[in-house]
Amino acid sequence: MKPLQLLQTNCWRFKSILRRHDTFVAFLSTSLNKKKKASGYEDVNQEKYANLVRTVTTSKSRRQTPERIFEEDSFLYGKVMKSKPEERTSEPKAPRKQSPLDNPNKATLAMENLDPSFPLKFSLPSRSQLANGNIPSVTRILQQTMPMEQAFYLERWKQRMIMELGEEGFIEYTAAIFSQGKSFHTQLEELLLAKEGFGKKQVELEDASGYLASVQHVLLDVGGVKSLESAVCHPDLRYLGLLDCVAEYRKKLCVIDWKTSEKPKPHLRNTFDNPLQVAAYIGGVNHDKNYNFQVDCGLIVVAYKDGSPAHAHFMDPNLCLYYWDKWLLRLEEYTEKKEDKQ
């Protein structure tokens, strides 16, 4: 290329660069001079909320403790105003009318001084034999005052069984359960009488029901039978019942209640109202003049149809007193319901 042509080309390129530079400078100047969009934060009183901003931003790096959280809540929301809790009427912890479980007017006889003609067995009195009309049974009182939750589960079980078996099938099922329980108690009574030397026939384990086989390990600790299938009546509180057995269990005189179950009941709470029933029978024995001894312990034995080892739930004197108070509450509830109907 000739020198003159080269010079002309370079001049043209230089002018092009200058034009681009001027365009960029003009665009930049226009952008910088453009009015900024108004921000809402400019109107905020920065001094007023400075402490709040500082608290929120610094708390992120501080260890959160219950005390620290309460401080932040107090700062953000103000002082907590504690209102007085709403008063609720709860079930009384103790019965309104106290009645002793034991009988201070009855002496507790030593075991060796008891009449050898035991075991005692009294029949339930007929209505004509009752001086002041009908006296409710322990079973009836507990059924009439059953807690709502317990009644709900019982009714749900009943309806489920009716759905599976039908009305007639459920009636047959309950009749069979009752018959099995009655047979178990009869066999058990014969076994205990024979063991104490009062019976003539020894029950063979091969002929025994699964329930009887289930309680064999418990019977090893049972002796000194004082009463079997005997009626008991509390003359002051006016209730009666038919207790299964009064005997020694591991050297402690107990009211023993034999129960049957198809499901395991390894804990005392699984037996529902049975502890209250035992406590009621203990109070009845202690105040019934037909019995010349007192009892302060209880035992609930749950036997199983398949012969698996029964669960034995021992109730010491303190536990018996605990359930005695619960029984008195249920007795008061029954009396109130009866009076409301009259």
Automatic annotation (TrEMBL):
Designated name of the protein: Mitochondrial genome maintenance exonuclease 1
Highest taxon of source: Eukaryota
Keyword entries, A-Z: DNA damage, DNA repair, Exonuclease, Hydrolase, Mitochondrion, Nuclease
MF term (GO), any: single-stranded DNA exodeoxyribonuclease activity
Gene that encodes the chain: MGME1
EC number: 3.1.-.-
InterPro entries assigned to the protein according to its UniProt record, in alphabetical order: PDDEXK-like_dom_sf
Compositionally biased residues, Basic and acidic residues: 83-94
Organism encoding this protein: Leptobrachium leishanense (Leishan spiny toad)
GO-annotated cellular components: mitochondrion
Localization, UniProt: Mitochondrion
Disordered: annotated segments: 81-108
GO biological process: mitochondrial DNA repair; mitochondrial DNA replication
Main localization, broad class: mitochondrion
Entry-linked Gene3D superfamilies: 3.90.320.10
Top-level EC class: hydrolase
Chain segments annotated as coiled-coil in the UniProt record: none
Keyword flag Ion transport: no
Keyword RNA-binding: no
Family (UniProt): Belongs to the MGME1 family.
Active site as annotated: 244, 257, 259
